[in-house]
Amino acid sequence: MRLGEVSAAGSFHRLDLTLLKRRQLYILLLLFVVCSIFYYLGEIVTFSGGTKSFFNGVHDVHRLLFIVPIIYSGYFFRIKGAIIVTLAALAVFMPRALFISPFPDPVLRPVLFCVVAGTVGALTGLARNTFERSRHLEAIARNERDKLLRVLETMEDGVVIISPDYRVRFQNPSMVRELGEGTGSYCYAYLHHLEKPCGDTCQLKTVIDGANKRWEYSLSDDKTYEVVASPIIDSDGVVCLLEVYRNISHYKWIERELVKINQLKSELLSNMSHELKSPLTSIKGIVTSLLQKDIELDDDTREMLLDGVNEETDRLGSLVTNLLNMSKLEAGAWKPEKETCYIPDIVDEVLKHQKWIHMNHIFRTDLEPDLPEIQADYGQIRQVLINLVENATAYSEEGTEINIRAKMVDNNIEVSVSDQGVGIPPEELNRVFEKFYRGTQKRRDHGGAGLGLAICQAIIHSHDGQIWVESIVGQGSKFYFRLPITQLSNN
Question: Which residues fall within 8 angstroms of residue 396, CB to CB, at 6 or more apart?
Fold first, then answer.
């Protein structure tokens, strides 16, 4: 509505009130004049030459008619109007009382009547004031409650109002979406699915008595709510319980994840302390033995000690490499720099090094001829194969076979690394690619931080590929990964 329209509407309203007041004043004047004429009607008739009649009789009966304008003025013009009309009536009564009335004490009766009639008129005005004030306060309360309900209905948090008899009086739409419709039902049945009140844990009585409470409410479907309860006076004057439900499931999930991260950090520090200390201790012991002047070592012993230093150095280097690679992957700094790669070349390079490290394992390859080239990061795919081969040798006995196969599957190259080791229990298959997870199966060689397979998964996913494992306990495991073949534009 425009400002001019608002002003016009206000002007018309004020005009209506003025006309109404004027009409009520005219009616009051008419009543007062009629009562005054009736009061002096006997004298008027006698003065006109008529005979005396009833109208010349008892003046108290005539005065009773003035109660009508006095009450009327009290109702419409309140206490002040009743007093003015009462005084005007007394002014009408006095000439007759002083000059005409034959009764003794003629002034006392009009005064007493005016006192009584004025009191009745004032009480009428007071009652009207009280009634309108009460109605005004009720209108304000209804308006405020309507505003509150509109605010509650638009809140994203769930809101419920519960009466002292445990009945749900109100729900906003958010509460209905979160927990379903429950208006009219008992709160213990609606919220807790119980057949009777919650007992000592119920906060209804405490909050209704004036306390504010806060607690957490969890459901079986992992939803958690922060509940804030406070008293509220409903429109019928009953003190009820107002509860606000805020869904904090996401924050609780973050808290649980932070706990897991802290646990992983503790496990990482513990594992790294042990894994770094073990090869360093071995190297230190071997080097100390080699440096002793008072002990003569034959060539075979010296070679064995040097082989031990070499193995522990390789183990330490593998651990540090995995840690660096994982930190780069987590930071997003080790992105694949794709180039044209040939899978058989990567397999040959990896086996050339691994055969020298794991001389007591038997390595076999089965590479499909004429495999196409792919677009991939040569170094990262080589690291995947290294980690898979080292994982296979760690969980299989010396003298067993490690098989590497590569073939075309649809528009992908599928590479697999299989062993004849202890295998992986079915319940652990979904966790082997988690960071720091090392499983329950015993390794042939101690060590490992549980990062190798997690790095493999991250690298393959960054190449838009797939990686998975199949295993039978006691027979061995077979790890697969697939990489898409990207056709070059000039082909």
Answer: 361, 402, 419, 420, 421, 422, 444, 476
State the CATH architecture for 335-484. Answer: 2-Layer Sandwich (3.30)
- Whole-angstrom distance, CA of residue 364 vs CA of residue 401: 7
Query: How crowded is residue 257: how many other Cβ atoms within 10 Å of its Cβ?
Result: 10
Give the residue-averaged pLDDT of 239-267: 85
CATH code, residues 155-247 = 3.30.450.20
What is the phi/psi pair of residue 58, to 5°? -65, 125
Residue 491 identity (one-letter amino acid): N
pLDDT band at 31 (very low <50, low <70, confident <90, very high): very high
Residue spans of the domains in the chain: they are 3-147, 155-247, 253-330, 335-484
Residues 399 and 361: beta-carbon distance below 8 Å: yes
| Domain 253-330, classified CATH 3.90.1150.10, yes or no | no
Stated length of the chain: 491
Residue 469's SS3 state is: strand
Query: What confidence tier does 278 reach under pLDDT thresholds 50, 70, 90?
Result: low
163-173 tens-digit pLDDT: 999 999 988 88
